[in-house]
Amino acid sequence: MAESAEHAFLSDSILQIMDAASESRLYAYREAERKRFDFACDLATNWKRAVSGQTLWKHTEGVDKDVRMLLSESESDALIYVARSTMKNKAVLYEAISDYKKTGLSERLDRLRVFWVPEDFDADSESHRKLVHSELKESVSRDLLLSVVLGGITDRDVSSFATWSGTSGLSLAVLAEVEDSGFGNYTQLAKKIGISAGPIKERIIRLSLTGFIVPSSDPRISGTIYEVAPKGYALMDLCGRLFAERDKFGAVDSGLGYICTLLGIDPYKVDLWAFSPGFDFIASNGRNVLLNPRHDASSRLAVEIHSAMDRWDVSLPEPFYQIPGRDIS
């Protein structure tokens, strides 16, 4: 049976959203073999995440089958279910999930992301398509791209990191050093960076509490007590991309601009901070901007990036991720 226009639009939209956001270069995207699913793709940073998904529009009786098929998929790290929002569909989905919890396999549910679409959506209506695509973009970006692919980083994480008190650039310098050489003890790390152990201890505690670093799974083998978490890698990659896009007056590529929006970052402020040592109201490129690193997370992040590189000699290479090509025809 041929799929409906709504079914095709929704499946294609999920892939388009993930493909477009990959222009940020914070992760790589590749459409994958669909196998028995409606859509599938691979997303990769330092590790690859396989995504598989189903779309339900007309056939309510397929909900239970779809969910059980998704949850039985062992090779995918994230499972997406896009479904028509009706009471019957939600009731059947709830029942299927409840049954799964009773089997002792509830941990598989952690991979499932469900996105509901208004039941009166009409794919022949341009206004409907724009609205549904926009809502899916917001939901998928936050519940999948930020939460899964980029390690769970949030706008609050970025704001907290950027506005920590103390020496500018030290937080990023400590994070980069843990990534490069690991963490043995405060004295050792302080000696490498060239500062007393007190500020180092404070930064390690803050990075740990916010989830940018995590305890090493096996310190005896790795030789380090802490290692950078996926969220921490995402932050360093973001800083590297923003530095690479400097001098463009905030005109970063659309993918990076969108991720910045989700994380509460204004790329324009990140780009202009160097021209405003007094942090006053300035005019540049036809736009007035108030830069106040004492209170503004975007401006403070810019100062953090510059200070880490200038004072602590931190290297922030632009991230570059690839997924080997494969014939998916």
Give a short summary of the structure.
It is built from 13 helices and nine strands. It is α/β, with parallel strands linked by helices. It has a five-stranded mixed beta sheet with strand order 1-2-3-4-5, sandwiched between helices.
Write the layout of secondary structure elements.
Blueprint: H1 5-21, E1 28-31, E2 39-44, E3 48-56, H2 63-71, E4 78-85, H3 87-102, E5 112-118, H4 126-149, H5 155-162, H6 170-181, H7 186-193, H8 197-209, E6 213-215, H9 219-222, E7 226-228, H10 230-244, H11 254-262, H12 267-272, E8 281-284, E9 287-290, H13 297-310
Parallel strand pairs: 3-4, 4-5
Antiparallel strand pairs: 1-2, 2-3, 6-7, 8-9
Describe the structure.
The structure is a single chain. This protein is α/β, with parallel strands linked by helices and 329 residues long. Helices cover 47% and strands 15% of the residues. It has helices at residues 5-21, 63-71, 87-102, 126-149, 155-162, 170-181, 186-193, 197-209, 219-222, 230-244, 254-262, 267-272, 297-310; strands spanning 28-31, 39-44, 48-56, 78-85, 112-118, 213-215, 226-228, 281-284, 287-290. It has a five-stranded mixed sheet, sandwiched between helices. It has a two-stranded antiparallel ribbon with strand order 6-7. Helix 2 (63-71) links the parallel strand 3 (48-56) and strand 4. Helix 2 runs parallel beside helix 3 (87-102), helix 6 (170-181) packs across helix 13 and helix 7 (186-193) packs across helix 8. The protein is globular. 37% of the residues are buried. Residues 275-291 have low confidence and may be disordered.
